[in-house]
Amino acid sequence: TTTYRIAPSILSADFARLGEEVKSVIDAGADWIHFDVMDNHYVPNLTFGPMICQALKPHAKTAAGVAVPIDVHLMISPVDALAASFAEAGADLISFHPDASGHVHRSIQAIKSKGVKAGLVFNPAEPLDVLEWTLDEIDLILIMSVNPGFGGQSFIDSALRKIEQARKLIDASGRDIRLEVDGGIKVDNIRRVADAGADTFVAGSAIFGKSDYKGVVDQMRLALG
Ligand code: DX5
Ligand code: ZN
């Protein structure tokens, strides 16, 4: 049976109170903390870097003191130098967009050599072709169901077919690879995304847009069954 994971994106949190926001969403049941890094170059927006990741790391644990993984989504180019900084800042998983790196295989190795799990991210109009040469190396596939750069956009339905494709590739590989989906995930569509084969769900505005984070996370889990 699938272990579903919910990864709230702090892109939609209150940046003036980020530490408390991370704590609150973990108390609400977050499995991972999704950390969206934007550089105003690869995407037309600017967020936060390794120093903020390092500052949040001590807050990324449950009340019982269990560490909650920090899931870093790099929307930056170039990739390698900052990926290394994020590994040192406490990232547990680092994903990047293949078209943002001149040497995808090298970037994956650079991340893994720091003892961090590595993922590849696919934009809505990008095929999964590069997986033919990288599936054996990675720990996570992240399918974008919006164009990267902003929270609060609508889910692009063609992502469902790509999720199905990715699920087939993962199952055929027999490897333990997480299939994460990012963008426009809400209580009312999370079940469809899971049915397509996803096991890990990023949600920003759906969670941080409500005052009762736990209410939303509970409803998502209920929908996942
Ligand atoms: C978009 C980011 C997403 C974003 C999702 O570039 O990668 O993680 O925060 O936000 P929602 O859930 O609001 O679509
Ligand atoms: Zn993201």
TrEMBL record:
Cofactor(s) needed by this chain: Co(2+); a divalent metal cation; Fe(2+); Mn(2+)
GO cellular component: cytoplasm
Pathway where it operates: Carbohydrate degradation
A GO MF term: D-ribulose-phosphate 3-epimerase activity
Cofactor remark from the record: Binds 1 divalent metal cation per subunit.
Catalytic residue list: D36 (proton acceptor), D182 (proton donor)
Keyword Ribonucleoprotein assigned: no
Residues reported to bind substrate: S9, H73, G149, F150, G151, G152, D182, G183, G184, G204, S205
HAMAP family from the UniProt entry: RPE
Similarity section: Belongs to the ribulose-phosphate 3-epimerase family.
UniProt cross-references to PANTHER family, sorted A to Z: RIBULOSE-5-PHOSPHATE-3-EPIMERASE
Protein name: Ribulose-phosphate 3-epimerase
Organism: Limnohabitans parvus II-B4
Source species taxonomy: Bacteria, Pseudomonadati, Pseudomonadota, Betaproteobacteria, Burkholderiales
